[in-house]
Amino acid sequence: MILRAAAEVIGRVGPAGLTLAAVADEVGLVPGTLVQRFGSKRGLLVALARQSAHEAEAHHERRRQGCPSPLEALLALAEESMALMNTPERFANHLAFLCMDLTDPQLHEHALAMHEAQRRAILALLDEAVAAGELRAGADTAALAESVQSLIAGTGLTWALDRRGTLPERLRRAVTTVLSPHISSKETS
């Protein structure tokens, strides 16, 4: 609950504007409680990064359970991975947190773990799609996974800049477009 509130506050004000008092307000606690638990704002940010990395490990299974098709699960995973960034301002604020991840070794460790978990989930879904006959046999799922993962991040940035449509619409269209040459003829008939 506290870490979810921290992510919400980051979305509104960015990591620079994040304070323990703002997070405490969000969850109805006194700031001292957060100081006792996390020690500092940095401690809270590290805990948030650690929890996000940990949750990313279970992301694939959660996504897969609710979708009848591996490709639908992949589209849902792409949308869910960007769900906190539903406005260009929120995207910018979370991007500022990513910039911290890139320069701080401890935060980077967790961001990298989250990135790798996302890639594994994408690859697993693409492999499932081949096995289910949704994608052509022999599709280079490793290369596709790398492309899809890059596409998700790039689509978010492009959408935040040009502000056309919604981010979920853009993600769905972009992922579908990159996968379309690999769709099995059984799926298109």
Short description:
With 189 residues, the chain is an all-alpha fold. It is 80% helix and 0% strand.
General description of the model:
Helix content is 80%, strand content 0%. The chain contains 10 helices and no strands. The protein has helices at 2-17, 20-27, 31-38, 41-65, 70-81, 88-103, 105-131, 141-162, 167-179, 185-188.
Radius of gyration: 18 Å
- The assigned CATH architecture is Orthogonal Bundle
Helix content: over 70%
How much of the sequence lies in strands comes to under 5%
Q: What name goes with the CATH superfamily? A: Tetracycline Repressor, domain 2
Output the CATH topology. Tetracycline Repressor, domain 2
* Number of separate helices: 10
Give the overall average pLDDT.
Answer: 91
Order of helical and strand elements: HHHHHHHHHH
CATH class: Mainly Alpha
Biggest sheet: strands, sense, closure? none
Structural class assignment: mainly alpha
Low-confidence parts lasting 5 or more residues at pLDDT below 50?
Answer: none
Total strands: 0
Termini separation (Å)?
46 Å
Shape: elongated
Total count of domains: 1
List keywords for this structure.
single chain, 189 residues, mainly alpha, Tetracycline Repressor, domain 2, 10 helices
Topology at a glance:
Blueprint lengths: L1 H16 L2 H8 L3 H8 L2 H25 L4 H12 L6 H16 L1 H27 L9 H22 L4 H13 L5 H4 L1
Pfam families: TetR_C_6, TetR_N
InterPro entries: BetI_C, Homeodomain-like_sf, HTH-type_TetR-like_transc_reg, HTH_TetR, Tet_transcr_reg_TetR-rel_C_sf
Protein name: TetR/AcrR family transcriptional regulator
